[in-house]
Protein 1
Amino acid sequence: MSTAGKVAEGKAAEDQRRPGRPRSEEADRAIIKATRELFAESGADALCIEKVAARAGVGKSTIYRRWPGKEDLLLAAIASMQAPLPEPRGRSVREDLRALLDALTEQSADPARAREFALLLGEGSRYPRLMDRYTQTWVEPRRDVIRSVLRRGVVTGELREDTDVEAALFMLVGSVMARSRYGDPVGPGHAERVVDCLMAGLAAR
Amino acid sequence: MSTAGKVAEGKAAEDQRRPGRPRSEEADRAIIKATRELFAESGADALCIEKVAARAGVGKSTIYRRWPGKEDLLLAAIASMQAPLPEPRGRSVREDLRALLDALTEQSADPARAREFALLLGEGSRYPRLMDRYTQTWVEPRRDVIRSVLRRGVVTGELREDTDVEAALFMLVGSVMARSRYGDPVGPGHAERVVDCLMAGLAAR
DNA sequence: CAATAACGATACGACCACGTATCGTATCGT
DNA sequence: ACGATACGATACGTGGTCGTATCGTTATTG
């Protein structure tokens, strides 16, 4: 039915036009919020639909009406965790890296985000679709921000010409990962120390 | 077989002296082996006693006779994963760090060991006893090896006097963690590149 | 008002894993 | 031989989770 000639209005309009009670956007939000919370608290494996429904104050059917299963729900929840890195100001590599690493550090203090690392490292093999999409959507774009700061530093002459961008990248983000773990949050001075240490190098003059 | 009671074993001898059929050491080995394999394949949450028993060719009771439950079994399995870092040769910091990082890299290619990271970062909060013991038994001693190499470098003058040992440590081990993930093993040249990059520093002269 | 679809609640069957209990059998010390 | 204990196998009860189905109710369109 419908299909209508009013093509110009797009699919959304068509959805709205469906007869019957419309889906509750509030339920959408509550479900995603509950999913994120439970994922943060217990991880992907321990997350279960019935607890999500209970916390969201929603019936199970309301969830299954929207997502076919658990993995798809998790996918939606993770996709909704927006955590943009700050735009580099471009005044100096040192300043930009500090700001980026500070942001990373702060974000990794959030249990939900710490779970993402775990998902990536461990549980990922059990949820391949989820992990692929997560990597593609979040990990690489964020790495690219750091890469571009480093590359620009090389161009401006602030960094060595033979800078190994990839090695530096993994040391920077890795320093946060290696440090953040349950009960041992990374302190605020971490970013500054790491950037200074890496910029100066270990070797004596 | 069973080497008899002859040795001056103390308590062990007393255990041996118990009447009845002695516990099978082969069953011990098979159980631990199966546990490690399943942990490597699927992680801590997916590991279940019944599959361990099946793979080990052992009855469930044989497992429960030895360990009170799943967590204790995992603890024993992880404790049995010996993975010593090589002894630093002490000729140069650069050489020692390369060797240590190469070893770390190679070990992290093992799925079982990759799971350890995940355990540390994510699932750890669900198995606090397990994680505490793991950290204390494996993580810190291994970090200490790297710390001592760095400190010695400062003493010998190979490294800057104001070297930030902790920052360098987390960059080194973190570079491996950030890179190793399911389906994206760290290449063999990684250690060399990282160490060179860190030693030289990013800043232009 | 009638048709339609989403709502919360809840019951259902299937499955899986836990940890316990009980088989008959095998292997030890005495 | 005998008692003791471990062995593999298997059945059991419990509890949790999945995904489906079915309530009566509520909101929206026409």
Protein 2
Amino acid sequence: MTELSERQKVILTLVIHEYIQTAAPVGSQNLVARYKLDMSSATVRHELAALTERGFLRQPHTSAGRIPTEEGYRYFVSRLIRASDLPDMTRRTISHQFYQMRHDVEQWVRLAASVLAHQSRAASLVTPPHPEKARIKHLELISTRGRQVLMVLVLIGGEIRQQILILDEPVSQEQLSQCADRLTQLFQAQESDAIRARQPQLSGLDVDVVNHVMSVLTETDAAVSGEVYLDGLTNVLAEPEFTGSEEARRALRILDERSLLQDLVSRTALSTTHGGVQVLIGGEGTWDELRQWSLVVGSYGLPGLATGSLGVLGPMRMSYGRAISTIRFLSGLLSDLVAETMLDESTPNSGEVN
Amino acid sequence: MTELSERQKVILTLVIHEYIQTAAPVGSQNLVARYKLDMSSATVRHELAALTERGFLRQPHTSAGRIPTEEGYRYFVSRLIRASDLPDMTRRTISHQFYQMRHDVEQWVRLAASVLAHQSRAASLVTPPHPEKARIKHLELISTRGRQVLMVLVLIGGEIRQQILILDEPVSQEQLSQCADRLTQLFQAQESDAIRARQPQLSGLDVDVVNHVMSVLTETDAAVSGEVYLDGLTNVLAEPEFTGSEEARRALRILDERSLLQDLVSRTALSTTHGGVQVLIGGEGTWDELRQWSLVVGSYGLPGLATGSLGVLGPMRMSYGRAISTIRFLSGLLSDLVAETMLDESTPNSGEVN
DNA sequence: TTTTAGCACTCTCGGGTCGAGAGTGCTAAA
DNA sequence: TTTAGCACTCTCGACCCGAGAGTGCTAAAA
């Protein structure tokens, strides 16, 4: 397979661009007229035929215009798309919004989802930052009734986990507090492995509590991500390809079933990548539910410390450029925020910063 | 306006029943055939004409069958519907599921939404139990860096609030812990008014912290409900009235915009009620977005202590009987769970219970 | 007075036909 | 290699039409 000619690249780009806007098959004359091409429609037809031959375009029926195939999109995303950054103004506005809520992790994530949905005009998904290995920052035990105790576990990064434990016998709040302090001291900034190693040295109440701590930690470690925050569902229903309720329902099903989503977002071996951002087009042949969809995914955070993902889910005919650049921008922004939170807390009281 | 005759009531009920199942205008002959009525179609036609005259039915066009009007649904719900409880088996299964996760409030709520959506075959919304007046169970202060402190507030009922505070000057973890203990002692089980009364007696660090505590409490008090948990969106998109994407989008918009939802759920002055459960049909003329929708809402919990709402949102042509009975059942179940959690915690260490 | 059979009438819905329009591929000339 | 010309194909919307379902009215039966 030889390289496409420059002209073919231009034409493929234009077809995709046009199709993304109009959602209708694009024909040769139309193309020439709209983009004031310096050649005749017949020439364009030649090239269209060639691109069709190569599998990058197809015709819904003979004597209709062309629409891009999955292959076409893939080639476009991996070779032709030019990195376009968001306008300075928007970047600044968005940064400012994040700055205002830099203290509340949940707020970032919501905001990120909202911005992403708005900019890409599709559905967005964002997972909160998730520590690679959960590390304890603080442990608290609060007596509720008799043998029932509320355990609150603050993790480094600000995540809070709670669990109710039922002890073998009632224990006073004083004892509980002491136990909590003791264990906090012992395990501060430790991850599950370190705690497991020390487990044999414990006794009495501590053992019981630590068992629960361990279960929470391993559970947290195992979970690829907590909740997934969604936004912009309506954007995606507005798309013409989903007017037939058939497709619309499948769409919603995908977003409803968190299992699939998590699979999806965590899956890293996707085919087409573009500057750290991965693009999954048309389900890549294996995800049947996504046959008509594309997913653009990026990640953020500090690898090894805490990471999260953010993605855009839209019709194959989506604006990849906008999705990619928004994800890239947000990824940087969120990474900074994570760094701020995590690094500061790992080395407590490490001094003043303006 | 005279009362409807018995026969008219029967026929209205049947029309609604039939229309709910088929979503198609129902005609006289069809009705006689399907329900083996002991009269001729001509007689039924007379009654249909009368019911149409009264405004309970209408024809999409002359020479089509009848479909219920909003008035028709209202009359049906308030006068004709017969309370049908869920089958014993289902009740037991559901109770069992709730029993298994009685310790985690978020889990209940999710489960309630899931059950409600499944039983009513429509979209469900459930808010977590929300204390009338937030009362503190435990306060914790955790130093993160320099002047930055993570405040964790455990409320009675198990809700956890966190906020980052920035102090005027760095304070050691010891001092923070002492302060937290002191304030926990002082304010345990108190609500915001009581705390405000004592505020003048405080000094130093405490003042700063208590200010933030107050802001969290008043914020919590003000919020009608926290997050709203949704489920069963796909159920509702499956309905034939929403195949035209126009309506489907409006549907999603409603569920997307939390503001509207909160308004809706908190609004108690709805027209048609049925055994503690309120039914809002077709937007009641004022909610334009809900013109084609109905909402069935109930509440649960302990009035004055902690309450939450649960509702079903579906097409006007929804199975009100099922929605109402499911809501009523779940409402009882959730109320019990709330009682268990709240009452126990209000009187700590009140003894053993099997 | 109420119910019912009969009947003419109305309206929707699905299928079939048809012409306009858009687009193609091919051929032959520039 | 590009382009003008042309015959051909396919979709889409408009239109028509008949079948079917349902109605309201009338007059007879109960």
